[in-house]
Amino acid sequence: MAGAVGSTNGVGNVARFNRPRGVAVDSSSNVYVADTGNSIVRGITPGRSVTTIAGSPGVTGSADGSLFAARFFGAIGITVSKSGDIYLADTVNDTVRRITSTGVVSTLAGLPVVAGSANGTGSAARFASPQGVVLNSAGKLFVADTGNNTIRLAVPVAPTPTPRPSPSPSVSPKPSPTPPPGPGPSQPLNISTRVNVGINQNVLIGGFIITGNVPKKVLLRAIGPSLSDANPPVPGALADPVLELHMPDGTVLTNDNWKDSQKAAIELTGAAPKNDKESAMIRVLAPLDPAVAGSGAYTVVVSGKNGGTGVGLVEVYDLAQAADSRLANISTRGSVGTDANVMIGGFILGGGTADAQVVVRALGPSLAQSGISGVLADPTLELRDAYGVLVASNNNWKSVPQQRSAIVEAGLAPKNDLESALVESLPSGNYTAIVAGKDGTTGVALVEIYALQ
After folding, report:
1. What is 337-452's CATH number, 1.20.1550, 2.60.120, 3.30.70, 3.40.50?
2. Is residue 428 a contact partner of residue 184, using CB atoms and an 8 Å limit?
3. Are 115 and 70 within 8 A, CB to CB?
4. Does the pTM of the predicted model rise above 0.70?
5. Whole-angstrom distance, CA of residue 443 vs CA of residue 205
6. DSSP letter string, 341-409
7. CATH class assigned to 186-327
8. How many of the other CB atoms lie within 10 Å of CB of 20?
9. Cα torsion for 289, 292, 296, 298, to the nearest 10°?
10. Please, which residues bridge with residue 312 across strands?
11. Distance between alpha carbon 430 and the CA centroid of its chain, in Å?
12. Are 366 and 415 in contact (CB under 8 A)?
């Protein structure tokens, strides 16, 4: 598992790290690494497959929220609890962080980049360059507060994340606490899709439905230029994305450059875009009402300003996980290329203790019936977990009899035999759906994720 400096994921010596300083092992023999020089957290399965769990390689900061949005700065110490929660000594940030087993990053104690020595709860506590963390058999967390030459005791309590997305900013405008997982199935807490953004019908089009009894607060982001700053950088990133939210009544809300409106509220989520030209908005959206046609269904469109093109990322974060509503059905349409330009859809499941039954579809040929040209003739579909391990794959949805029956029973059979679909029962965690064209073909495709009741 050793290698030259870098942040590449892969199996065995294909993987690359940058001055890793801490490791921890869970009861299933998974290894967790504080990849200090990259300011990220990595995971290594018993099969030696390495993946990035949280943070963005080479992007430092202090941001709570989903694993896609979280930021660390030179974290050194790491430990893992019996329940699968990860604790970090986030050294340069002078804080202690937690990554829950459901995929939420929060600051457990301390205030980012405010060094000191003070006892207290949450952000009232102060540390100075903590470098070590360990849990004892009773679940008490001890912190090596290096700069203060002291050993501190932190009792892990239910997470009350500081501003974060997968998140929950709420009151004034602090995020509401993430509720403990209930007895029901997990639900989607975050969705994202990265795809090549073109013009006209080849812009990025994402749709989602909110179900439940109360409105849902969400954060929408359209990311482009900061993808070039990733490690490794994404080639051909969209230079200036424009975000549109199409409401059920036909109203269109637009943002170009996130600081132009809602700047303070977006910053408090901990998921403010890294580049001023990227777009974001916070909205409270009404759920589906069976008595009102079209209610609860929303469309997000990402395009390039002045007809610009390139690779873009659209994200929807649940900012009110405790609310009696949920992100139910999610879809994104865009151009599928090859290599780095395939369609990549991500989603996080959480908020429940039972597995969630999910249907994932990759559509291409049937889109022509809606007047879309240049469709992907034969889409393939892969579903991977947070470690990059293949959960399932499909090419032609009828090819597996058991899957075929379940897909038909769910009422989600694709219209074309060459399209792909999967039905899976998934525990809480991060997942990625990858849509590509068979034999390297390209075209317009649609990836869909349905959370079944």
Report:
1. 2.60.120
2. no
3. no
4. no
5. 14
6. GSEEEEEEEESEEEPEEEEEEEE-GGGGGGT--SB-SSEEEEEEETTS-EEEEESSGGGSHHHHHHHHH
7. mainly beta
8. 17
9. 180
10. 195
11. 7
12. yes
DSSP 22: E
What was the pLDDT predicted at 169? Answer: 24
What is the helix, strand, coil percentage profile of the chain, to 5? Answer: 10, 45, 40
C-alpha 39: how far from chain center? 17
- Residue keyed to tokens 């996080």: 348
Two structure tokens written together for 370: 């809606």
Joined together, the tokens standing for residue 8 give: 């590449």
What local confidence, expressed as pLDDT, does residue 202 receive?
Answer: 84
In the block, which residue shows the tokens 């200090």? 36
Q: In what order do the strands lie in the sheet with 49-54?
A: 10-11, 49-54, 40-44, 31-35, 22-25
Two structure tokens written together for 213: 């009894």
The tokens describing 84, both together, are: 């699968």
The residue written with tokens 């209930």 in the block is: 182
Residues of the chain with pLDDT under 50: 1-2, 157-183, 185
In which residue are the tokens 């986030």 written?
Answer: 90
Q: Give the side-chain half-sphere CA count within 13 A for 164.
A: 31
Q: What pLDDT shows up at residue 59?
A: 82
Number of helices and strands in the chain (H, E): 2, 31
- 322 and 176 Cβ atoms separated by less than 8 Å: yes
Interacting residues of 121 by C-beta distance below 8 A, sequence separation 6+: 109
**What are the boundaries of each domain within the chain?**
10-154, 186-327, 337-452
Would you state the CATH architecture of domain 10-154?
A: 6 Propeller (2.120)
Burial (CB count within 10 angstroms: exposed 0-12, middle 13-18, buried 19+), residue 28: exposed
- Cα distances (angstroms) measured from residue 402 to each of 245, 381, 406, 424: 38, 17, 6, 11
Grouping H, G, I as helix, E, B as strand and the rest as coil, residue 304 is: strand
Spatial contact of 161 and 64, defined as CB atoms under 8 Å apart:
yes
Q: What are the structure tokens assigned to 341, written together?
A: 């330009």
Dihedral angle of Cα 233, 234, 240, 242, to the nearest 10 degrees: -130
**5 HSE (CA, 13 A, CB side):** 6
Which 3 state secondary structure label does DSSP give 438? Answer: helix
- Identify whether the C-beta of residue 67 lies closer than 8 Å to the C-beta of residue 105: yes
User: Looking at the DSSP assignment, which residues form a beta bridge with residue 196?
Assistant: 311, 335
Q: Do domains 10-154 and 337-452 have the same CATH topology?
A: no
Distance separating alpha carbons of residues 393 and 192, to the nearest angstrom: 19
| φ and ψ of 354, to 5 deg | -95, 155
Return the amino acid letter for 387. Answer: Y
Q: Where are the alpha helices (DSSP H) in 179-238?
A: none
